[in-house]
């Protein structure tokens, strides 16, 4: 029986291993992590992450051929294939601070694999890692190998949160990068055989190691660049009276461009986009390519500009101050159908409003109060370290209240900011909300999900990103 072990029970490791277990009943899959609370959650009825369809898959396999354990060394030593899915946070100090990936967790995982291995292993990079990580890992393993052979593969994940299970069941492509040697080719084939049990052969692509590592960074950079492109257009649309939805619809009809990732919003978030682009920038700089680095820097700059623009619009619309005013934030996760708040634009928007003295009332159907308070009090890249290395008890931000109902969040508020496109926000009773708000009542739609015409008829002053401006907003221009 082939045994697979995955180090890291997070957003990538958990769902990926659950689907492998489901589709390969003859393979024993173990997911290991040093965090006891996280493993306990995977073994309970309340999984540590929310992802549509994940619970069903886990329940079908758990205890049969899918196991969650804190006994890291036992499962690593027994495994034939080891997936490594540990955190790769952005460095906050030292060489490459603010851009380069911190490979501390990767390195300790590699050293532990070398220490406990008694048989040949295939080690698979699953976390997003900078180009040439495989080479570094390979060096650690070979220099500590005690006569055991290790093959390193890069198998980047291309999951979108909210649709991760579907993405795993029906992937666009599975990318496997390995050494172009007999041992490397054999290792690639072994991993191919796992995926081939449910993924069509023509969707499994084999490349060299560097191409696989770079493809992941490139894919995320291209997607983020599309979002920044349409967000840059949204600012121009507001200035000229054009409608960004109409512009992106027209652009998306061009078959060379296509319609996906062309929705204007308050900005992109998630654990990968910013981190991967920063990584790409660092690699470009290290390789003497400043012009290429500057091109990708601009994608992040436009994203930051979009979040700042949104906050400025809120403040300027309300007589240039939100001090002491209650603002309701609907949504905190970085996108709908996930409880993930990593790099969510909501953090910067809420911090911006708090900086101007607002009282912020937050409602999100999937994000806990503890998580929101943690995010608002943490330093920039802290979120990407394992939970036990994050600040233990975040200082609660006093002007923030977290509630479990959109109507409570909006009661007595001066304005509403829609920051996540949860479906339920489209069907709220906005007449009831308007009646219970301070007047003039504002809606700032950061996701373009509300019916602007209907809300204006109720009496709201509505700001929708990239849409023709309400006369009120034209009289109170936002300072950039």
UniProtKB/TrEMBL annotation:
Residues 328-452 form the UDP-glucose/GDP-mannose dehydrogenase C-terminal domain. It comes from Nelumbo nucifera. It comes from the Eukaryota. Keywords: NAD, Oxidoreductase. InterPro entries: 6-PGluconate_DH-like_C_sf (IPR008927), NAD(P)-bd_dom_sf (IPR036291), UDP-Glc/GDP-Man (IPR017476), UDP-Glc/GDP-Man_DH_C (IPR014027), UDP-Glc/GDP-Man_DH_C_sf (IPR036220), UDP-Glc/GDP-Man_DH_dimer (IPR014026), UDP-Glc/GDP-Man_DH_N (IPR001732), UDPglc_DH_euk (IPR028356). NAD(+) binds at residues 8-13, 33, 38, 86-90, 127-128, 161, 272-275, 342. Belongs to the UDP-glucose/GDP-mannose dehydrogenase family. One of its GO terms (molecular function) is UDP-glucose 6-dehydrogenase activity. Pathway: Nucleotide-sugar biosynthesis; UDP-alpha-D-glucuronate biosynthesis; UDP-alpha-D-glucuronate from UDP-alpha-D-glucose: step 1/1. It catalyses: UDP-alpha-D-glucose + 2 NAD(+) + H2O = UDP-alpha-D-glucuronate + 2 NADH + 3 H(+). Signal peptide: none annotated. GO terms for cellular component: nucleus. The active site is at 272 (nucleophile). This is UDP-glucose 6-dehydrogenase. Its EC number is 1.1.1.22. The gene is LOC104597982. GO terms for biological process: glycosaminoglycan biosynthetic process; UDP-glucuronate biosynthetic process.
């Amino acid at each position: 029986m082939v045994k697979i072990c995955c180090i890291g029970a997070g957003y990538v490791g958990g769902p990926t291993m659950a689907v492998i277990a489901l589709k390969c009943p003859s393979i024993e899959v173990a997911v290991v992590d040093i965090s006891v609370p996280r493993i306990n959650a995977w073994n309970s009825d309340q999984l540590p992450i929310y992802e549509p369809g994940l619970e069903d898959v886990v329940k079908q396999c758990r205890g049969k051929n899918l196991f969650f354990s804190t006994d890291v060394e036992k499962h690593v030593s027994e495994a034939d294939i080891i997936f490594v899915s540990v955190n790769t946070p952005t460095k906050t100090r030292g060489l490459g601070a603010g851009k380069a990936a911190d490979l501390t967790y990767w390195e300790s995982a590699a050293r532990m694999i070398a220490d406990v291995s008694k048989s040949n292993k295939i080690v698979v990079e699953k976390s997003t890692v900078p180009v040439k990580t495989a080479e570094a890992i390979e060096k650690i393993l070979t220099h500590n190998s005690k006569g055991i052979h290790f093959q390193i593969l890069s198998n980047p994940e291309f999951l979108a949160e909210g649709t991760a299970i579907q993405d795993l069941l029906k992937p666009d492509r599975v990318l496997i990068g390995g050494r172009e040697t007999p041992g490397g080719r054999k290792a690639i084939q072994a991993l191919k055989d796992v995926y081939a049990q449910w993924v069509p052969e023509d969707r499994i692509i084999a490349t060299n190691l560097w191409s696989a590592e770079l493809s992941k960074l490139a894919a995320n950079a291209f997607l983020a660049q599309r979002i920044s492109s349409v967000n840059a257009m949204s600012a121009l649309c507001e200035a000229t009276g054009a409608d960004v939805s109409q512009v992106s619809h027209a652009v998306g009809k061009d078959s060379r461009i296509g319609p996906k990732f062309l929705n204007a919003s308050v900005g992109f978030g998630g654990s990968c986009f910013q981190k991967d682009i920063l990584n790409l920038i660092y690699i470009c700089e290290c390789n003497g390519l400043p012009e290429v680095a500057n091109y990708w820097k601009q994608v992040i700059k436009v994203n930051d500009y979009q979040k700042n623009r949104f906050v400025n619009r809120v403040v300027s619309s309300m007589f240039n101050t939100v001090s002491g005013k209650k603002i309701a934030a609907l949504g905190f996760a970085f996108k709908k159908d996930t409880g993930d708040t990593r790099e969510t634009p909501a953090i910067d928007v809420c911090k911006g409003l708090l900086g101007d003295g607002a009282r912020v009332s937050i409602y999100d159907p999937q994000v806990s109060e503890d998580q929101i308070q943690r995010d608002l009090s943490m330093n920039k890249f802290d979120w990407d370290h394992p939970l036990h290395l994050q600040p233990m008890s975040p200082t609660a931000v006093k002007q923030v209240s977290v509630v479990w109902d959109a109507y409570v969040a909006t009661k007595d508020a001066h304005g509403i900011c829609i920051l996540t496109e949860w479906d339920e926000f489209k069907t709220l009773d906005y007449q009831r909300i308007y009646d219970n708000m301070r007047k003039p009542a504002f809606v700032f739609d950061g996701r373009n999900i509300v019916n602007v015409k209907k809300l204006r008829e109720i009496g709201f002053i509505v700001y929708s990103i990239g849409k023709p401006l309400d006369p009120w907003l034209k009289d109170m221009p936002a300072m950039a």
